[in-house]
DNA sequence: GAGTGGTCTAGACCACACC
DNA sequence: GTGTGGTCTAGACCACTCC
């Protein structure tokens, strides 16, 4: 019968809208448990799949989160502020501090799973770095964990020929990080470009970033340029959008 | 029976993975039609709801798009590049050109539905603009349409007392737009801050932006500062993430 | 008219969380 | 153990698209 009676909206959308409004109105706050499938079935006189669909709508909107065996709960958001410009200022990495430390002041951040490899450059990266087909790149893959949750995956690509024999090719790139090492090589990054996209994650990414359904990811692709105009690094990052707010400051 | 036999993944995820891989491998290109529910039922020997769930996974990943009565199709992406820094350079709006025109070179862009109102300032906006409870703001709401598709909704807030009697309070803000008018008022914007978030849209937003399921939105909140350090405008934008790639350039 | 996806029902078994 | 959400079946009627 699909759509008779009350209104033009399908039942499951009506139920979803009702719950969404209740959350908006503060009836259910962050962390609160919503009426479950059985309760919705009884209250609205619908079949289980219909109640389930309603909750599915809110889930794919990122409003609620289902926990198996426990219930459906209102999600809360505490994004970290990531300053795109100040965090890459030379006085940050020039002073021997980690670039990342400029982001998070007092929360428990861990960088783990650093893996450094030498590989053939992916097509687009090779193009930006100006590499020939035969040239390889040094890839530094990292995982960033904040308060126990994975919030970002990062892959940094540098011309292998340029960074050979430096600390860049080791997991610990030393004080000031990769950019300080590049400066010592006479390739000090002086200009950056960040390109931002937003999309839904693949199933694999959702697992790696521990994302609950309805959470998009942010792709940031940063290119670092030396004084000569040469691109010396390409860094591809994938961020949990529920964990981040990006900020860029600039003049007119 | 839920989960026996082949593997540990639920059937609908297996089917989804299979289709996803086929798309990745190019078996189905952008715009191509995927096997429908009936076909999946027959090929995999599953019930309709299971085949449906599989397609639902790909839909919520933004990979495919269902068209009622027609089929399920692979989506294609042609994002517009939005340069965050250059587009707000003074020589753009100072020369009497529209800020927006810096974004899109040769595609059919329309700004429509401009509505200008005077309202009480929303709490966060009032705080940034440094307004008292009793002070109102001039709100300029706009809709941006590219190649026939709505790609952005924008609400610009300015102190009503500051802009009273200027073209800012009319739908057509004149050559160079709002910023040129602010300059004439002695409040030339010299510094900008853009804050970016990403999330799934509400049902209402999805409709207004004509988003297919699985498409996140990008929120950009831009604050314009005058020489004095005073915030003179707050612009809240909501973008279709499938239509945009953001770009920011800056020095070390 | 035939085929498609959209909505909905009424059952079922399972794994997991909490008590 | 009881209740929760996760998966799955086997039907049904509808609105829509395309021929």
From TrEMBL, chains A, B:
Record-linked InterPro entries: Bact_HTH_transcr_reg, Chorismate_lyase_/UTRA_dom_sf, Tscrpt_reg_HTH_GntR, UTRA, WH-like_DNA-bd_sf, WH_DNA-bd_sf
Entries under Gene3D superfamilies matching the protein: Chorismate lyase-like, Winged helix-like DNA-binding domain superfamily/Winged helix DNA-binding domain
Listed GO MF terms: DNA binding; DNA-binding transcription factor activity
Keyword set, alphabetical order: DNA-binding, Transcription, Transcription regulation
Annotated HTH gntR-type domain residues: 9-77
Keyword hit for Nucleus: no
GO BP terms: negative regulation of DNA-templated transcription
PANTHER family the record matches: GNTR-FAMILY TRANSCRIPTIONAL REGULATOR, MANNOSYL-D-GLYCERATE TRANSPORT/METABOLISM SYSTEM REPRESSOR MNGR-RELATED
Identification of the protein by name: GntR family transcriptional regulator
Organism name: Streptomyces mashuensis
């Amino acid at each position: 019968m699909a759509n008779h009676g009350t209104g033009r909206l399908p039942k499951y959308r009506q139920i979803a809208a009702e719950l969404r409004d209740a959350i908006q109105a503060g009836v259910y706050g962050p962390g609160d448990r919503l009426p479950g499938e059985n309760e919705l079935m009884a209250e609205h006189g619908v079949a289980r799949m219909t109640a389930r669909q309603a909750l599915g709508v809110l889930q794919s909107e990122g409003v609620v989160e289902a926990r198996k065996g426990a219930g459906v709960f209102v999600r809360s958001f505490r994004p970290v502020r990531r300053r795109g410009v100040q965090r890459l200022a030379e006085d940050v990495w020039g002073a021997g501090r980690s670039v990342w430390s400029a982001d998070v002041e007092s929360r428990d951040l861990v960088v783990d799973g650093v893996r450094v490899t030498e590989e053939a450059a992916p097509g687009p990266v090779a193009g930006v770095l100006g590499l020939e087909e035969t040239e390889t790149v040094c890839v530094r893959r990292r995982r960033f964990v904040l308060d126990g949750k994975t919030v970002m995956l990062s892959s940094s690509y540098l011309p292998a020929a340029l960074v050979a024999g430096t600390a860049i090719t080791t997991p610990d790139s030393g004080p000031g990080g990769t950019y300080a090492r590049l400066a010592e090589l006479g390739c000090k990054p002086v200009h950056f470009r960040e390109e931002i996209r937003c999309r839904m994650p693949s199933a694999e990414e959702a697992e790696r970033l521990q994302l609950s359904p309805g959470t998009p990811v942010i792709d940031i692709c940063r290119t670092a340029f030396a004084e000569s105009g040469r691109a010396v690094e390409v860094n591809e990052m994938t961020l949990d959008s529920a964990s981040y707010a990006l900020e860029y400051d600039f003049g007119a």
